[in-house]
Amino acid sequence: MITLHRRTILAGIPALAATALARPASAQAPAGPFSLPPLPYAANANEPHIDAQTMEIHHGRHHQAYVTALNNALKDHGQLAALPLPELLAKLDQVPEAIRTTVRNNAGGHANHSMFWPVMGGRGGAPTGDLAQAITRDLGGFDKLKADFNAAGVGRFGSGWVFVTAARDGKLALTTRPNQDTPLMDGQRVLFGNDVWEHAYYLKYQNRRPDYLAAWWNVVNWDRVAERYAAAKAGTLGV
Predict the structure, then answer these.
(1) Are 129 and 99 in contact (CB under 8 A)?
(2) Could you give the C-alpha distances from 181 to 54, 92, 113, 191, 214, in angstroms and in order?
(3) How confident is the model at residue 45 (pLDDT cuts 50, 70, 90)?
(4) Annotated binding residues
(5) Separation of alpha carbons 218 and 120, rounded Å
(6) C-alpha to C-alpha distance for 119 and 229, rounded to whole angstroms
(7) pLDDT value at residue 1
(8) How confident is the model at residue 10 (pLDDT cuts 50, 70, 90)?
(9) Residues with Cβ < 8 Å from 180, sequence gap 6 or more?
C-alpha cells in the first residue's frame, strides 16, 4: 500500500521535484540562496496526531525537493534569486515565462512549508490574549474558526492549503489556495495554515482528510502563532 501511495504522490509533483525525492537529502541541495530550514522539534514531537515517518518524509524529501527545484530554476537569474521569498512571490509577473511556473510552484512550496513547521510542535488548546480577541472579532470565535477552517480544508478539491491571514491592522481572514499557491502572491501575510496535500497525512489517515484536519489542532503551537500575529501587526512577518 505504501508503494502504491508513493507512486500516487510522485505523479502529482513536478518532474524535477520528483527526481529530487529519489535522492538522499544530503545530495539534493545545489548551491543557491534558498535552504531547507531545520525542524524546530523532533520528528516524533507531533505524535500520535502526525507520525514521525510522515514528518521525516514531508520535511526532508518534499520540502527539500521544492528548495532544490527553486535554486535550480534561479541559478542563472541572480537578481531574482537575491529577492526575499515574499518579494519573489509577489513579483511572479517579473519572472521569465520559461521558469515562471517552476518558480511559482516551488517558491510557494518553500514559503508554505517554512511557515508550517514552526506553527506546529505544540500542545494545541486555545489561543489567548490579543490573538484570541482578534479571532473572536474577525472570525466568530475559536470554535467557529475551527469549524470553518476544517470545512474549507475538506472542500479544497485536490491539493492545496487552508490559511488564516493577518493584515497590518490586525484583521484576520480565512482563505484557501490550490497546489502550492500562497497569499504571499497577493501581498498578504500568512498567520498560520494547514497543508492538505495527501503527502501531509496519507500514511496515517489514508483518505480521511477530515480526521487529519480535526487532529491537527492538537499540535498547533499557539505561542508561536501569537508571535507571528505580533510580527504581522508590526510589519515584520516574513513567510
Answers:
(1) no
(2) 22, 11, 11, 15, 23
(3) very high
(4) 58, 113, 195, 199
(5) 9
(6) 12
(7) 38
(8) very low
(9) 66, 104, 105, 106, 108, 109, 112, 161
Q: Is domain 129-234 annotated with CATH 3.55.40.20?
A: yes
Position 13 scores a pLDDT of 38
Average pLDDT value for residue range 69-97? 97
Indicate the domain borders of the chain: 2-28+51-116, 129-234
In the numeric block, which cell numbers belong to residue 55?
514528518
| Grid cell for residue 65 | 525537493
pLDDT score, position 12: 42
The whole-number pLDDT of residue 17 equals 40
Q: Which of 156, 178, 162 is nearest to 220 (CA)?
A: 162
Element (H, E) at 152: helix 142-155
Query: Is residue 48 reached through a cis peptide bond, with omega within 30 degrees of 0 on the bond before it?
Result: yes
Q: Is 50 exceeded by the pLDDT of residue 113?
A: yes
The C-alpha cell that represents 221 in the structure block = 503551537
Q: CATH says 2-28+51-116 is which class? A: mainly alpha
Residue bearing the bigger pLDDT, 2 or 101 = 101
Binding site residue list for Mn(2+): 58, 113, 195, 199
- β-pairing, 172-178 vs 190-195, is unpaired
